[in-house]
Design a protein that fits this description.
- The chain is about 30% helix and about 20% strand.
- With about 350 residues, it is of the alpha/beta class.
- It has 2 domains: about 190 residues, Rossmann fold; about 70 residues.
- The strands form 2 sheets. An 8-stranded mixed β-sheet has the order 6-7-8-3-9-10-12-11, sandwiched between helices. The chain has a 4-stranded antiparallel β-sheet with strand order 2-1-4-5, covered by helices on one side.
- α8 links the parallel β7 and β8.
- The longest helix is centred in the middle third of the chain and has 18 residues.
- It is globular, with a radius of gyration of 21 Å.
- This is ABC transporter ATP-binding protein.
- InterPro entries: AAA+_ATPase, ABC_transporter-like_ATP-bd, ABC_transporter-like_CS, Oligopep_ABC_C, P-loop_NTPase.
């Protein structure tokens, strides 16, 4: 990707307003076990603006999926949120609600109408023994009791059309659709009740690159049309550079850098972010040797006392091994790295 194209895309996608739809503060999630609980997310803090796409990226085991199941209250035992809050700010001006402490009944009322989720595997997310349209009808009539059965079927066909699926496919079963069609159908289903926030958990993982591009283009188009905010989780940083307004980089359960997509591409501040960026070959640049990130992520059951990335970091200092860096603001972005405390560029 060229830097000119990246800048133009981010300028076009920047949200109009700066009001907040989701405010996450000090969120911690642990997994209980026979021994000491394992903390998979630690002190996660960020704010999401209306209409913004926030990408969350990191290696497997960095805490991405744990974070989004905690945000949407979909985690199951042994996972439990032990600290922090997730404030959802309704667009109608009502008082913000803490999703962490919301009762199941009130949470159910918010799902689909205010916040929804697109899961990684569409075949697992869709009911295999129900026609596709019937699953839309269930969601629509559950949240709008005044909608007739006929009107709900018409709306299901219209929603499928929004993601490029023929209306007659509403009568199909999930196994009769291609993988790309199933994934697009789950996106349409998530938008059925016009939510303000859509959480997407690696929705393009199971499709080929051509379908991936189509899905991303449709997400951007639908975001412009309906104005919803997106939390988009993936392990593919190159994908987020084209899609997201801002990117949160996670490592060992913590956010280690939070910046605009342009800043992450041009001037990553954390050595881990730089390693992720340099792991993907550029489309328009001289051929160079790719440098991966050596080693493996740390065991969350036995994290070091200092920076968890220290053993893999090419710019490690003695301080890094004994003192944990905290996420601190640095000129419109945030980073957790002692290199910037010392004023040293990685």
């Amino acid at each position: 990707m060229t830097t000119t194209a990246l800048t133009a895309r981010n300028d076009a996608a920047r949200p109009v307003g700066s009001d907040t739809v989701l405010d996450v503060d000090g969120l911690c999630v642990e997994y209980a076990g026979a021994g000491e609980p394992v903390r998979a997310c630690t002190d996660v803090t960020f704010a999401l603006r209306r209409g913004e796409i926030l990408g969350i990226v990191g290696e497997s085991g960095s805490g991405k999926s744990t974070l989004i199941t905690a945000l949407t209250r979909l985690q199951r035992p042994p996972a439990v949120t032990t600290a922090g809050r997730v404030l959802f700010h309704p667009q109608d001006g009502e008082e913000p609600v803490d999703l962490v402490r919301l009762t199941p009944r009130k949470l159910r009322a918010l799902r689909w109408t205010s916040l929804s989720i697109v899961l990684q595997s569409a075949m697992d997310a869709l009911n295999p023994v129900m026609r596709l349209g019937a699953q839309f009808v269930d969601a629509l009539r559950e949240h709008d009791r005044s909608m007739s059965h006929t009107a709900a079927w018409e709306e299901a066909r219209r929603l499928l059309g929004l993601v490029g699926i023929s209306a007659d496919r509403a009568r199909s079963y999930p196994h009769e659709l291609s993988g790309g069609m199933r994934q697009r159908a789950t996106i349409a289903l998530a938008l059925a009740c016009r939510p303000e926030l859509v959480v997407m958990d690696e929705p393009t993982t199971a499709v080929d690159v051509v379908m991936q591009r189509q899905i991303l283009a449709q997400v951007l188009r639908l975001r412009r049309e309906f104005g919803f905010a997106v939390v988009f989780v993936t392990h593919d940083l190159s994908l987020l550079l084209e899609l997201a307004d801002r990117i949160a980089v996670m490592y060992a359960g913590r956010i280690v850098e939070l910046a605009s997509a342009t800043d992450v591409y041009r001037t990553p501040m954390h050595p881990y972010t730089r390693g992720l960026r340099d792991s993907f070959p550029p489309l328009h640049a001289p051929v160079t040797r790719l440098e991966g990130i050596p080693g493996s992520p740390p065991d969350l059951r036995a994290l070091p006392s200092g920076c968890p990335f220290a053993d893999r970091c090419p710019a490690v200092m003695e301080r890094c091994r004994t003192e944990l860096p905290l996420l601190e603001p640095h000129g419109g972005r945030s980073v957790a790295c002692h290199l910037h405390d010392e004023g040293i560029r990685p």
